[in-house]
Design a protein that fits this description.
Layout (H helix, E strand, L loop, with lengths): L1 H35 L10 H24 L4 H18 L1 H4 L7 H20 L6 H18 L2
Helix pairs in contact: 1-2, 1-5, 2-3, 3-5, 5-6
Length: about 150
């Protein structure tokens, strides 16, 4: 039962990270659009870059702390794997997060759900009887996401 609580904590960590990243990215795109709405020539602002830096910082803080609180062990393995999964999700979901203004529920909640699935599957892979299904599901999600943008 404790293992499932760890998986739920890892999923909550991923979801919280996804919500924070989505909100920060939405803020950066919105501020960029507002600053450039009256521009008649090329308009380049620092807002998207600032939002990207904040998103990376939040992922680098929330994921290790959340996995530590959830007691997903060993941290030497689970933290790098979850950070890699978060980076992968961010790279693959640029179309979801690049909408102008505040994101709609249709755009934000799939991103948050995908952010929650990765850490939850990593934590579930620590349960012996669920190791093969969890790793298989993780592999299937990664392979399917490679073809989703095509």
């Amino acid at each position: 039962m404790r293992e499932l609580a760890r998986a739920a904590g890892a999923a909550a960590t991923g979801a919280l990270t996804g919500i924070a990243v989505s909100g920060i990215w939405s803020w950066g795109i919105g501020e960029d659009a507002a600053a450039c709405k009256d521009a008649t020539s090329v308009c380049i602002t620092y807002y998207p870059l600032y939002a990207l830096g904040l998103a990376v910082a939040i992922v680098l803080v929330l994921v290790p702390v959340g996995l530590w609180i959830s007691r997903v062990r060993p941290l030497e393995v689970s933290v790098p794997v979850c950070l890699a999964l978060m980076a992968y999700v961010l790279l693959r979901s640029d179309g979801w997060l690049s909408t102008l203004g505040s994101p709609s529920l249709q755009l934000t909640w799939p991103f948050v759900l995908i952010c929650a699935i990765g850490p939850a599957l990593v934590a579930t892979a620590r349960i012996r009887r669920l190791q093969v299904p969890a790793l298989s599901a993780l592999g299937i999600l990664i392979v399917v996401s490679l073809f989703a943008g095509a």
